[in-house]
Amino acid sequence: MDQQTNELNAINILTKKVTASLNLDQVLAAAYDQVISIIKPDLMVIYLLENDTLISKGEKPQNSQWVNEAPEKKKVGVCLCGLVAADKTPIYDVDIHTDPRCTLNECKKAGIKSFAALPLSTDNQTIGVMGIGSFNARDFSKKSAFLEILATQISIGIRNAMLNEKIHQEKIQLENSIKKQSKTLSALIESEKKYRLILDNIEDGYYEVDTIGNFTFFNQSMSRILGYSSSEMMGMNNRKYMDHENARKVFKTFNYVFTSEMPAKGFGWVFIHKDGSERYIDTSISLIKNSKGYITGFRGIARDMTERKKVEEIIRQEQLFSETLINSLPGIFYLFDESGKFLRWNKNFETVSKYSAAEIGCISPLDLFTGDDRGYISRQIQTVFEIGQADAEAYFVSKSRKRTPYYFTGLLIHIENKPYLIGMGIDITERKASEEALKKSQEQYRGVVENANDAIIILQDGMIVFHNKRTETLMGYSGKELSEIPFINFVVPDDQKMVSERYFKKLNGEKFGNGAFAFGVMNKKGDELWVEINTVLVSWHEKPAVQCFIRDVTLQKKMETQFRQAHKLEAIGTLAGGIAHDFNNILSILLGNTELAMLNVPEWNPARKNLEKSRKACFMAMEVVRQILSFSRQTEQEQKPVDLNEIIRESLKLLRSSIPTTIDIRFNIPETSYVILADPAQIHQVIINLCTNAAYAMRENGGVIEVGLTEKQLDNQSAPHLGLSSGPYAQFSVRDTGDGIDPKILDRIFDPYFTTKQIGEGSGLGLAVVHGIVKNHGGTITVRSESGKGTLFRILFPKIETTLLDKKETARELPRGTEKVLFVDDEISLAEIGKQMLEHLGYQVEARTSPVAALELFKAAPHAFDLVITDMTMPQMTGKMLAQALIGIRPDIRIILNTGHSDQIDENTAKDMGIGAYIMKPMDMMLMARTVRSLLDKS
Fold first, then answer.
1. Secondary structure of 263-313 as H, E, C letters
2. H or E element: which one contains 60?
3. What pLDDT shows up at residue 844?
4. Which helix (H) or strand (E) is 444 found in, with range?
5. Is the pTM above the cut of 0.70?
6. N or C: which end of the chain has fewer CB within 10 A?
């Protein structure tokens, strides 16, 4: 604000000087003085325009090196001053050495760094150029408003002086003409016209009035200022356009000029414009005397200062607002320079410090501090002047030596390229007392919190700002680590979104569910823990925060998970039995029709081979169904010596047709046998599962599946690490070239129901089943995976020393007979197939699809049948019920119970009931022939 006041004073001084004087040299001198006093340039120069040439009108300082180098004339359009004269637009250049527009070298040689050139113009006509320069880099555009106002005032003064010079020259010429009597009256009139023309082109108003204030002469500018036409103004008294107060003021001034015969300069007053608005005018007044020396009136120059007055009022209002704002601040306000001299402060500063305004002007900031605070504040002040800002807490010491805790701020600002520190101080006495009370409360609170069984934390801005020791024990991190890691990073990825949403809801005061909720966290060891959390909205250091009470529920969660999985497995077991029954019926139809077809196709026919493959597929499917029943705990697992080499090869042949051709299957399997004690169907399932997972990992980009089989000998040192006994093992491996498994989930892949596949692509039971099968066979499974380098599974099965019998089938005769058989099955297709098979074997067959109808038939002639073959699951009557009814009628009747699945009866129960044979579907022709013949041949 002080700077703005100085600038405004400079404008006023310059205006008065150029208004009061019509001398060009005086106008130029006033211009140099005011610009240099405020802007303080290293160089200032003024050029006046004559035709297309700029003529130098002096420079300051005159001892500058530039003076010796600068030409007296410059062309319009050349270099910065010439460009301004041509374009009538100011140029502000921080570095002329990099500006291609600066084409003359006198400024550069003189060491000028920054330069500003402004046009001097009136009525949109350029009369010259003002230039200012600095040896250091300086942005003159920050003073553009002030400089352009000065340029306007200088232009008006120069214009008036130049016109006055012309008037003076004309007057001399006129006087010479009259003296020499060489001019005629017409020449005199012409001269008066020129005189009038010159006056009419003056920017300011020119007037002449008689001794009572009536206009006798005036120029067009005067008419424009008052708003009246020339005809209206001629003879008009000046009282017409002013109120009583201003009329009295004007009369007093004119009377002073009249009585003292001294001119009045810079006299200002308010007049009423023709449109009724108030305007401000600044004028000079001098006497008019006739040739005899008598006073005939007054003359002067008037300038309309209305706009300038508006600017002054705005500045005054801004100063008032600034002072009011500073004095209304709740703390102390200060502004001091680099030497520590106070330049501005508010009333509160005087009240708190007990120093008067005069005393504050004589002390430094460090006088307000003692002891260690004095050095600390000194360093903080230096920090502000070095890096731009700083703050501090210290005890403010008043004149009465009272010490009060204050929080101080400091900000670096520049005024006229000089550095200053501006800031505020706030009394923090109450805050200090609150902090002390809070500290005591926190100590008591911490005693309770530190002994809590639950982890207790406070979250603020997503970070842990407080925690108890239990938190470190639970998470495995040090206190420093906990404070540096965002809390959300401890949460497992799957729960991060949910936890984040609830955190922000709590901060916003929203409610969710019952308040407590559970989610997964990862401790420093990488173990995943389940925690249950309760939250409370609190304030921590006067900012909102969330206090969390965290309880480890990992064990509880595992028990709940195991309980749910047990229920799921039980449900799957029930479902598996129903699937096995239906699937075995379908297989019975496929196998029966295939074998019946083979009876009519000779071995040389190509179709015979296709039928044989279908028959083998049915047997493989039978093993799958048996495995399903084993999984559902419906059948006992049967482990026997098997060749792992042969099972792998058969499985890979089956897989090849179901895996995309973009995936290559390579295997390294020796020809020698690797005999293990195993259930072939389960081993087949392990191979299929691992290879299918490998193919899934490469489904998009293709790749390679490598299957290997080698022998591995475990000694007494290596075996215990794998949980195995020492000895020979068959090592089966499956490697893929997919993207690999995320290390974060690698230890969870064998968990039941854990899967990374989309819904509908997998159940999450595959690897869990594989793991269970391997463990049940006395083996172990390991996995190694790297991101982008694929995955490798290795399985170890204990080898056994035994020789397998040759499995090649030899032609065997089907046992036949001629006895009469009753065949019962509610499936029409199965009843027909059973009838055809038995008839092919030579038997006489009656087939029925209703157990009730079959019982009626048997009742009618109990001894007509030698054997009854019945399904177990049938409508109206089960096979078990039918068998009991048949035995009740004829105890010695031979019965074969054929079932796809039953949870009501097994082989032992069937024998106890008197049923001769219990066979699982599907029953191929050889099994049927042998079972029937064996049962009929019994005595």
1. CEEEEEEEEECCCCCEEEEEEEEEEEECCCCCEEEEEEEEEECHHHHHHHH
2. strand 53-60
3. 94
4. helix 429-450
5. no
6. C
